[in-house]
Amino acid sequence: MRPWNPDHWVPTFTAVWGAEALSLFGTQLVQFALVWWITKSTGSATVLAGATLVALFPQIAVAPLAGALVDRWDRRWVMIFSNAGIAVTTLLLALVFALGKVQIWHVYLAMLIRATGAAFRWPAMQASTAIMVPQRHLARVAGLNNSLFGLASIVSPPLGALLIELLTPRGVPAADIEAARQAIVPLLGVDFAAACLAIVPLLLVRIPLPQRSKVAAVRASILSDLRAGFRFVTGWRTLFAIVAAAAAITLFSNPAISLMPLLVTKHFHGGAIQLGGLQAAFGFGVVAGGVLLGIWGGFKKRMTTALLSLFLQGIGFAAVGLVPSSGFPMAVGALALVGLMNPICTGSLFAIVQSTVPHEMQGRVMSLLISLATAAAPIGLAAAGPIADRYGIGIWFLVAGIAMVAVAILAILTPAIRDVEARGAPAHIRTQAKDQQPAPHR
């Protein structure tokens, strides 16, 4: 294994990025198949929202602890063990499906474990990116990194839909469910192989670690690391306001996304191919947006880029909610717009955080941001089923769009948020971060 060389960061980052791409491809393929199986097996908005809630739980409850541990551990090994855990879980789930013994709780448990692995892997990836990639390239790398998610969204859902559709006989509901179960087994096999292959590049590269202070090595503990990360986020009022705005958006957008399969079956009267088409349209948009941000880099003020793209995302979400049942192509176009703006918004925001938060705090702050922003999701998901059953699935898309537009307008009118990059973190917050660096894991 070669020692870390900051002048030749591209090969190392490419290897890590490639490992993430392999793992993500399998994850998206299985996620589509499991969600479609739940939709066909139950047809329940409540059960479908419950699956999303289970997958989100680690982001809320585990992510803060994961972030503190990521800052103490070798981030490369965190990603390796996360992928290994996901691979084992996928293999066991494939066995249950193959034996015909699968129950909803089996799928819920597998989603919970896989999401827990992702709760460790994602902060490790983001924190590693911040220290591997020069600051001037962070926005571009963030855009390209987001395009990875879009590419997986393009390839995985249509492929999963095609396989399920080919193996599912029409007109016999019981056989329909049974064929879907049988089709999922090879898809789980693909995910297992992808997770295993993703480990290989990580075994061959070296990822640099942030410097540890001797003071922190003596007095730091995991709980103190968590408290330090929380004080950093809450003590920086502008950052906390951004997190609160993200939570408000998540409150409405998460139920909309989780209920998309029922939007296809109940509103547009479609099947797996139509669901795959909607998700692929979103994926095409994400890839295009990621490539655009990667080439362009955004406006000089990254926050301007983030807020303008958030505004346009809101327009796309609202359009989906207003499309009639005969307007499926319009919904495809609206979701493509949402996908186009998504990586431009999130990539710009991540670049802002990566360039303003000290390296030794990256893991904790990143995971706390995700956790706090996602904390509102259970409220929306708990209400998703009853409200969707009474008012239709589209209401969630409409309300989510209105929330995004409102947040974008309010943020651009708030100087502290609009000029966050120029102002940076307050001096006392940066001093506190230096004094409370995490101790190395022993």
Describe this structure in words.
This protein is mainly α and 442 residues long. It has one domain (6-205, 218-435): Up-down Bundle (Growth Hormone, Chain: A). Helix content is 83%, strand content 0%. Helix 4 (75-98) runs antiparallel to helix 7 and helix 5 runs antiparallel to helix 15 (362-374).
CATH class: Mainly Alpha
Largest sheet: none
Named CATH topology: Growth Hormone, Chain: A
**SS content category:** mainly alpha
Count of distinct structural domains:
1
Tell me the fraction of residues in β-strands, as a range.
Answer: under 5%
Say which CATH homologous superfamily is assigned.
MFS general substrate transporter like domains
Kindly state the percentage of residues in helix. over 70%
CATH architecture: Up-down Bundle
Q: State the separation between the terminal residues, measured CA to CA.
A: 22 Å
The total of helices stands at 20
Rg value = 21 Å
Low-pLDDT residue spans: 213-219, 438-442
SSE order: HHHHHHHHHHHHHHHHHHHH
